[in-house]
Amino acid sequence: TMLTGQSQDLSKAKAAILRIKPHYWKVVGEHLDVEVIRELKTALPDLRILWRCYWENQPMPENYEQAGSLAREYSNRILAEPAVIEGLIWGVEAHSEGFAWGYNLSDTQKEALDTYNDFLIKELSSLSGQTEVEVVVGNFGSGNGNGAWWRLYFPRTLAAAKIIGFQEYGWPNMRSQQPYRALRYREIMTSIRVVYGDMRAMITECGLTNAVIDGGPDVGYSRIKTPEAYWAEDLSWYQGELAKDAYVEAAFLFYLSGHYG
């Protein structure tokens, strides 16, 4: 199955991961629980763990001059983590949600983020030494960007990257939000791949939440009484659509074992 999950508290999610036996799993947090990751990798040696290294007030580059230093700071954090040093982590997300709700960055900030992504990929490639770490770039908030926009503002990123990340959500279901908030990746990837070749995609966040509706509260399936079959059918439809595009590697449902339940 292409749909998998993500968590903050990996110890709470461990039993589910061992039961599901996914090919990918995503972890969100400032640090990684290396003991739990060792257990998971021992039981599931083919498990690929994607890490979003996140901390409160994480800075985003505001200009070209800041891009290099912040990318180096971020890569140093990643490469100092024991689970990365031991080669247990498959990949990391570059700065996530640089565009959270709409085209809200100036051209200067876009150039800075493009440069940051380029620097980060090259930093990790040159400094990792004992292990190769994949970098998933993009990961903009649901409903952002198109192919022409990507090619215009992120040429350095696209020249260096192998994998583009997307966030896709729907409410009251995924199907009703296509192609704006769901399946938006398809137009973008088609446009990018014409120019940049065999680029891959990951849906680094996806699911069902009212938060995708402007001004709506963050209410999802676990907070309203709706038959489980309703959600299962909609997510099955979404997985079927993802499977039509061979370049999509995985889609991470938000959220198991974290602040959101």
Write the layout of secondary structure elements.
Elements: E1 3-7, H1 10-20, E2 24-29, H2 34-43, E3 48-53, H3 64-80, H4 82-85, E4 91-93, H5 107-127, E5 134-140, H6 147-153, H7 155-160, E6 163-170, H8 184-196, E7 200-208, H9 228-242, E8 248-253
Helix pairs in contact: 1-2, 3-5, 6-8
Report on this model:
Helix content is 40%, strand content 19%. Residues 257-261 have low confidence and may be disordered. The chain has 261 residues and is an alpha/beta fold. It is built from 9 helices and 8 strands. The radius of gyration is 18 Å and the shape is globular. An 8-stranded parallel beta barrel has the order 1-2-3-4-5-6-7-8, surrounded by 5 helices. The two termini are 23 Å apart. The protein has helices at 10-20, 34-43, 64-80, 82-85, 107-127, 147-153, 155-160, 184-196, 228-242, and strands at residues 3-7, 24-29, 48-53, 91-93, 134-140, 163-170, 200-208, 248-253.
Strand order of the largest sheet: 1-2-3-4-5-6-7-8
Major β-sheet, in short?
A: 8 strands, parallel, barrel
Q: Decide which structural class fits the backbone.
A: alpha/beta
Task: Tell me the fraction of residues in β-strands, as a range.
Answer: 15-25%
Q: Can you give the mean pLDDT?
A: 85
The total strand number stands at 8
Figure out the total of helices: 9
Oligomer: single chain
Rg from alpha-carbon coordinates: 18 Å
Helix percentage: 25-40%
**SSE order, one letter for each helix or strand:** EHEHEHHEHEHHEHEHE
Shape summary: globular
The first-to-last residue Cα distance is 23 Å
Q: Low-confidence runs (pLDDT<50, min 5 residues)?
A: 257-261
